[in-house]
Design a protein that fits this description.
heterodimer, A: mainly beta, seven-stranded mixed beta sheet, B: mainly beta, six-stranded mixed beta sheet
C-alpha cells in the first residue's frame, strides 16, 4: 500500500528551527511533485509549500516564504521541510501530500501528519 | 490572491441529501477538488476535477459547478459521512493551491 510517514515534529521555542521529514513508500516518489500542508488546532487546511518532482522548482505561501525551505532526496524517497524563525502561529499539524502529475491535479495521498508546537 | 468561500457548517438528517458549496470568482474555469477529513484523520480526496470520483468513493458523492459556485452533493447521507469537507483549486497566477475554509457536515 502506498504510504507517507512524517516525522520530526516537536515542541520548539519561538525563533527556533526544526526539520520535518516525510518518508514515501510503495510508489515512484521521484515522479511526483510533493507538498506540505498544515492545519492549526481546530482550524482548516493551509498550504505551505510545493516542490517539483526533480526538486528544481519550489513554491511557498506568503507565511512560509523566507523562513521555510522545502527539499527532497529522491534517492531516499524522502521529502523535507526546514522551518526557521518559528512563531506561535506556526503551531500546527504538518502533513506531507503527494500531488498528481497534471499541473492542477489534486493531492491524492496524505500522511498522518507531524505536530509542531511553538511555545516558550 | 484567489479566495474560496465555504459555509462553516451544514446539517442534514440521515437518508437526506447534503449540499456543500464552495464559492469563488469564475470557479468553473478552474480545476476543483474536494477533500473529506474525518476527526483525527488526514484528508482524503472525494472528488477530482469537479465531478470525478476516485475509486472507493461511493456513487452517493457527486460534484457540480454553476456560475461562481461549486457544490459537493452527498445523497442518502449516512452517519459515517460526518466530517469536515474542503474544496481546493489552483491559483493560476502563481501556481499556488488554495483551500476553502472548510465545512463541517453534521449528521443529525
Amino acid at each position: 500500500e502506498v504510504h507517507l510517514l512524517e516525522s520530526g515534529g516537536t515542541l520548539v521555542q519561538p525563533g527556533g528551527s526544526l526539520r520535518l521529514s516525510c518518508a514515501a513508500s510503495r510508489f515512484p516518489f521521484n515522479n511526483f511533485p510533493m507538498a506540505w500542508v498544515r492545519q492549526a488546532p481546530g482550524k482548516g487546511l493551509e498550504w505551505v509549500s510545493t516542490i517539483s518532482a526533480s526538486g528544481t522548482t519550489t513554491f511557498y505561501s506568503d507565511s512560509a516564504n523566507g523562513r521555510f525551505t522545502v527539499s527532497r532526496d529522491n534517492s531516499k524517497s524522502t521529502l523535507f521541510l526546514h522551518l526557521s524563525g518559528l512563531r506561535a502561529d506556526d503551531t500546527a499539524l504538518y502533513y506531507c501530500a503527494k500531488k498528481g502529475l497534471p499541473r492542477y491535479d489534486a493531492f491524492d495521498l496524505w500522511g498522518q501528519g507531524t505536530m509542531v508546537t511553538v511555545s516558550s | 490572491s484567489y479566495v474560496l468561500t465555504q459555509p462553516p457548517s451544514v446539517s442534514v438528517a440521515p437518508g437526506k441529501t447534503a449540499r456543500i458549496t464552495c464559492g469563488g470568482t469564475n470557479i468553473g474555469d478552474k480545476s476543483l477538488h474536494w477533500y473529506q477529513q474525518k476527526p483525527g484523520q488526514a484528508p482524503v480526496v472525494v472528488m477530482y476535477y469537479d465531478n470525478d470520483r476516485p475509486s472507493g468513493i461511493p456513487e452517493r458523492f457527486s460534484g457540480s459547478t454553476s456560475g461562481n459556485t461549486a457544490t459537493l452533493t452527498i445523497s442518502r447521507v449516512e452517519a459515517g459521512d460526518e466530517a469536515d469537507f474542503y474544496c481546493q483549486v489552483w491559483d493560476d497566477t502563481n501556481d499556488h493551491p488554495v483551500f476553502g475554509g472548510g465545512t463541517k457536515l453534521t449528521v443529525l
